[in-house]
Design a protein that fits this description.
Helix content is 46%, strand content 14%. The protein is an alpha/beta fold and 1062 residues long. The N terminus is likely disordered.
Length: 1062
């Protein structure tokens, strides 16, 4: 009775005549469709499938009925569509086509039809497989334009809240397509559309899945319809700390707001938008997520980068442009590497062996492809997940086994498409110590986000990154077991080596310091073993560094060797070395290199700005870039070949940063840049407790034109000599002199001691605190050389015979008096000698009495006179630049510290490199005439080092530098002081300063200053040099005034003293 037609490779036979008969039956039923028929249609589909039942062949007839203008036909059609959506999920790929018709019927004249249309549309949206959501969106979007009837548009918008309940994750992934469509409707004049679109957007926002911004969704929603609110909302958003990975849903929600912010007239809002874009884009783990938004944001940012007038806002915008360009490059690269997901339908045809598929099978394949793409986007890649969601779609065309096999084959191909090869894939068979993904933050600042770290035994990894990128924080977090996924430091012995010894440990002897480490104590290492290891690194009873002397007596180089000795005793599996060559001379740097290269089976992570160390010791490089840890096999040179930007590690001239130091002002009485401002003559110095002196017969001088490099091996006495020169210590024999009006900036070798008492202040607050008393430097007054000795205090209390001359009678009398204090005043007498204002013991107020410098020195007040000189010198620096928050902020930026860190971060949250910049900026605030830097290259990356070199080159004062960085000193210093075991030898062009004998008078003088309120006032310049004729006239005028008893003004009085007219 039946003709059997075998379809090739189906796995089973269709009974053709039976199918044709069912087709005719369903066609007839749809032709005369009435309410009540829907149950039999659903039953037929479930019993025979979508193809055999004739549903595929008759879908157009159903659409015609559901879309009819006749009320009865429309009601029966829509009821059937709803019943199939709810009762026959296997038909969703075909039945979904009716959604467009349902939306159109929202404008039907019959209220019952409109109600059924809404129910049918919601039934399709609610019951479709969640992964098939994107198959419905084109039909909804097509009904949203303003040309459509408002009822149709309203129903389309009401579908989004349905998706929110039935497919929240899938809706989230679809937001990049949905948000622009919904946003356009929120501006509609029709109240119903406004309400529906607002509700749709609110529901869409609830599925973004980003905790950092979900609390702001209401404000973002407001900003869409109220542009005036944008600046305020942007301001709040700029304060958000982004921690969570940023994915396409969050981007879809925020990008419209950011675009509006970029187009605002206010520069502040444009700037905030750029900051948010920069911060968020760094947290995009999957660059492809950002792909759709980059063509929108990049042009707007680039326009602002060219058009914004404010330099700082323009710089911020340029940074955001650079970051987005990097993200675009990664997105394009990932898109090129990944397979083309749009070709999944081709993969399905091949897997099913249906390359010429058409009709219902083609629709099923297209439906399955979109579902599969959605599963790929959300990471649903398990075989069971695909079998459950996709395989059953093909039940009407192939056997279950063949469907599952085909789906699995496509899934495997899809997995390959998602693979992005690791740049650090290593064929090495060395033991893997660590392979983890983690996020690292310091306070509110994200340093590394969802990044991978893979370490192998026996490898030396150089860790690269700019100042404040998180290098030291990463190593300290590893040592403290705070990196998720990193092996416990108890099972893999991990030791962190840093040279900075805490103040509370500095009184310990070297041996005691070793045992102060709880890990060493727990290991029960004998004292003899400790002494043996210390001996191997150079700590000997008769050596420069003695094992039983206090740590405080050690130079920086020996402190680093002490830290290395402690690490050696722990027999580490992983050594974490933070600047291991800091403070070390050439000999000890070579020792460190040999030690690292001799280690067997030990893994080292090394942070260093020493390119030689990274080249000679490293097998791999780790680079912190845009919150990610990038890995590379090879040393620094090899890494630079593929990353040319890293050339700044090799050349100071390659630095893109610039520092700018304030120029020193004029010094009263100094007309030549070659005149000495600081001197040491025949100075010896011995540390307390030591038998032999550290320094012998030191004689040096420094002028405004000095450019001196002080070099020598560790422990030779370089830093000690500098401490004597700047007044941090006093010599036992010899003289140290400084011009009373000269200002000196000193940055110590252990630079952080300047700020360790102020870590709870911001850098800006610290500088304002330090110079708050009329520009006086609080730190300069606590030096050893400013504290009175017992002998001086005794002299001060001893009455001293002072000679007075009565102005009227000319009578000379002698009185023994005791000076109780110096009042801070100073003037020049006829002999061009300074006199200082004093108050005598027993007097309750100052009577304007002045005593000569020589007299006060005999009375024990020499240090107090120096303090007065220092205050006067410092105040003269303050006048040009008042101590305001804005001025300090600009000064910190000139010294390389971003205003973000300078004004808004406490110093406890700053990196080592940033702290050095704070110390440098604080020392330079009062516009010093002499700059003394002890190991300035420690902690600064090459970019900052190049900028520092540039600032020193342009600095108009004298410079003395202690450094082991030969490249740095050679570029700057024609004169060299060589310290060898306490003896000093000078080399190079020591007389070059005489050739720089530029007359101070000829230099550009400061002519105006700006106060904290922005008011500009003229600065009175130095006295004009008079011609002989002018001088003669002035002498005559002053003599006449003196004769007539008239008062002289300041300039006339100074001239009169100079010419002995008074």
């Amino acid at each position: 009775k039946f003709v059997t037609n075998s379809l090739p490779d189906n796995g089973f036979h269709f009974k053709t005549s039976f199918i044709e008969k069912n087709n005719m039956a369903l066609e007839a039923k749809f032709a005369s469709l009435s309410l009540g028929d829907e149950s039999s249609i659903v039953a037929a589909i479930k019993a025979d499938g979508i193809e055999k039942s004739g549903f595929v062949a008759n879908i157009e007839a159903l659409k015609a009925k559901a879309g009819s203008s006749d009320e009865a036909e429309a009601k029966s059609g829509l009821t059937t569509v709803k019943a199939i959506a709810e009762g026959a999920p296997e038909a969703e790929a075909i039945n979904k086509e009716c959604l467009s018709v349902c939306l159109d019927q929202a404008a039907h004249k019959s209220a019952d039809v409109r109600k059924l249309a809404e129910e049918a549309a919601f039934a399709i949206c609610k019951n479709v497989n969640p992964f098939a959501l994107k198959t419905l969106l084109p039909m909804i979007f097509a009904k949203l334009p303003v040309e459509e009837k408002w009822q149709v548009r309203e129903l389309g918008l009401k579908c989004f809240p349905v998706f929110n309940a039935s497919a929240p994750k899938q809706l989230g992934k679809a937001l990049p397509e949905c948000v622009p469509e919904i946003t356009a409707c929120m501006w509609d004049t029709k109240k119903q559309i406004k309400v529906a679109s607002t509700e749709a957007m609110r529901d869409a926002m609830s599925v973004i899945g980003n905790r950092d911004i979900e609390h702001m969704t209401g404000q973002i929603l407001t900003a869409i319809t109220k542009p005036k609110e944008v600046p305020e909302i942007m301001h709040k958003m700029a304060g958000v700390t982004f921690v969570q990975s940023v994915e396409s849903p969050a981007l879809a929600m925020v990008v419209p707001l950011l675009l509006r912010g970029l187009r605002e007239k206010k520069i502040a809002t444009k700037r905030q938008s750029a900051v948010i874009i920069n911060n968020m884009s760094k947290l995009v783990d999957n660059p492809i997520d950002a792909g759709p938004f980059l063509p929108l944001l990049l042009p707007a940012l680039e326009t602002n980068a060219e058009a914004i007038a404010d330099p700082e806002a323009r710089e911020i915008t340029e940074k955001a442009v650079a970051q987005l360009k990097r993200l675009k490059e990664m997105s394009d690269k990932q898109a090129a590497i990944r397979g083309d997901v749009s070709k999944l339908d081709t993969e399905y045809m091949a897997a099913l062996d249906k390359k010429d598929a058409d009709g219902g099978l083609l629709k099923i394949i297209q439906h399955a492809s979109i579902m599969s793409t959605a599963m790929m986007e959300l990471g649903f890649m398990e075989d069971t997940q695909w079998k459950k969601n996709v395989s059953k779609l093909f039940a009407a065309y192939v056997s279950a086994d063949k469907a599952e096999a085909a789906v699995e084959k496509v899934r495997e191909e899809a997995e390959k498409m998602l693979i992005v090869p690791d740049d650090d894939d290593d064929e090495d068979d060395a033991e893997e110590l660590c392979n983890c993904n983690f996020t690292l933050a310091y306070g509110t600042k994200i340093l590394l986000h969802n990044t991978k770290m893979r370490l192998k035994r026996g490898k030396n990894y150089g860790l690269l990154g700019g100042n404040d990128s998180g290098k030291t924080t990463l190593m300290r977090s590893i040592a403290q077991n705070q990196v998720e996924g990193f092996p416990d430091t108890a099972s893999v012995r991990t030791v962190f080596v840093e040279a900075d010894i805490q103040g509370e440990q500095s009184h310990l002897s070297c041996v005691e310091y070793i045992f102060h480490d709880p890990k060493i104590e727990a290991m029960g290492i004998p004292v003899e073993d400790v002494r043996t290891v210390l001996h191997t690194v150079g700590f000997k009873p008769d050596g420069k560094a003695k094992p039983d002397h206090a740590v405080s007596t050690l130079s920086g180089g020996w402190r680093m060797k002490l830290a290395l000795a402690r690490a050696m005793l722990q027999k580490a599996d992983i050594l974490l070395l933070d600047e291991p060559t800091n403070h070390l001379d050439v000999i000890n740097v070579a020792w460190v290199k040999n030690y690292l290269n001799s280690l067997d089976g030990v893994t080292a992570i090394i942070v260093s700005h020493d390119s030689g160390l990274l080249n000679d010791c490293c097998t791999n490089m780790l680079s912190i870039e845009n919150l990610k840890l990038r890995s590379f096999k090879g040393n620094l040179d090899e890494f630079a070949k593929v990353n040319p930007d890293i050339r700044a590690f090799f050349s100071l001239k390659a630095s893109s940063k610039t520092f700018k130091f304030p120029q020193p002002g004029p010094i009263e009485g100094v007309k030549s840049k070659g005149k000495a401002l600081m001197k040491m003559a025949r100075c010896d110095f011995t540390y307390p407790g030591n038998d032999s002196p550290t320094l012998f017969d030191i004689t040096v001088q420094v002028s405004l034109s000095s450019r001196v490099a002080c070099i020598g091996e560790n422990g030779a006495g370089k830093s000690t000599m500098i401490k004597l020169l700047v007044g941090e210590a006093e010599p036992q024999t010899g003289d140290v002199w400084k011009h009373p009006n000269a200002r000196v900036a000193y940055v110590a070798q252990h630079a952080f001691h300047h700020i360790e008492e102020h870590v709870d202040r911001t850098p800006n607050e610290y500088i304002r605190w330090r110079y708050a008393n009329n520009g006086e430097d609080k730190e300069s007054l606590v030096k050893v050389t400013m504290q009175f000795s017992p002998e001086e205090e005794k002299l001060q209390k001893t009455p001293y015979e002072i000679q007075f001359t009565d102005d009227e009678s000319g009578k000379v009398s002698k009185v023994k008096k005791v000076v109780s204090e110096l009042m801070g005043g100073r003037k020049t007498n006829k002999s061009k000698e300074y006199e200082y204002e004093v108050r005598y013991l027993g007097s309750t107020m100052s009577n304007g009495d002045f005593l000569p410098q020589k007299t006060l020195k005999k009375m024990g007040w020499e240090k107090a006179m120096k303090a007065v000189d220092l205050k006067i010198a410092q105040r003269s620096g303050l006048y040009v630049r008042p101590l305001s928050t804005k001025n300090v902020e600009e000064h910190l930026e000139d010294c390389g510290l971003d205003r973000e860190f300078g004004t808004h971060y406490r110093m406890s949250a700053l990196s080592g490199g940033q702290k050095v910049k704070v110390v440098l900026a604080a020392a330079m605030w009062n516009q010093p005439h002499i700059l003394v830097l002890d190991e300035p290259t420690n902690y600064l990356d090459r970019e900052s080092l190049g900028a520092l070199a540039g600032a020193i080159e342009g600095f108009g004062g004298g410079v003395v530098i202690i450094s082991h960085n030969n490249e740095f000193t050679q570029a700057l210093c024609p004169e060299t002081w060589i310290m060898d075991s306490g003896h000093l030898e000078t080399k190079g062009d020591a007389d070059w300063m005489l050739k720089q004998d530029v007359k101070i008078d000829d230099q550009t003088q400061i002519k105006e200053m700006t106060d904290a309120a922005g008011n500009v006032s003229k600065v009175k310049g130095g006295p004009k040099k008079l011609s002989k004729k002018e001088e003669k006239v002035l002498v005559k005028r002053i003599k006449a005034k003196i004769k007539n008893g008239e008062g002289l003004d300041t300039d006339e009085e100074e001239f009169a003293f100079e010419k002995d007219l008074l």
